[in-house]
Task: structure prediction
Amino acid sequence: MGLKDFIELSRRPKSFIVGVVAQFAIMPVIAFGLVSTNSFPNEISAGIILLGTAPTSVTASSFCYLAKASMALVVTITAITTLLAPFLLPLLMKLFAGGFIEKDVMQMKLGMLQIVIIPIGAGFLINHFLSDKTKWLNDSMPLVPCLEWPSSWPLLLLPEEIAC
Result:
């Protein structure tokens, strides 16, 4: 994956737009429909809606990597939805889960900004100023998701072209 992959993606933004819209429109509606048609406790209902409104994760990227899917697409969707999440997730939670739990939208927004924007900014700065000293880190990144999830540890035993 390189710059040319992202340039190609920018020439055909439809797939990226569909992914972002699906994340913040379709997924929350599906989650809300699921909890509305079942008798879950309020906390479980709010958790399901939170899962439906949260951006894609490292796990999604890992599975796309293993499936040899477009990593530029998944990285772009993950990056954009992660950057939008501090602004949209609290509003979506208020809209869809407001009847199940009480949540201060501004407090949630500030917390998410601290969790999302600060680490991303730090990563950009480290990559910009120390990129020549962190090649070993870039080379080891495909292993991080595998180490993150104990259930994926058996994948480490597979040949490199199949596993992480």
User: Anything to note?
Assistant: The mean pLDDT is 78. The CA atoms of residues 90 and 107 lie 9 Å apart. The helical segments are 3-11, 14-36, 42-53, 58-66, 71-97, 105-130, 135-140, 144-148.
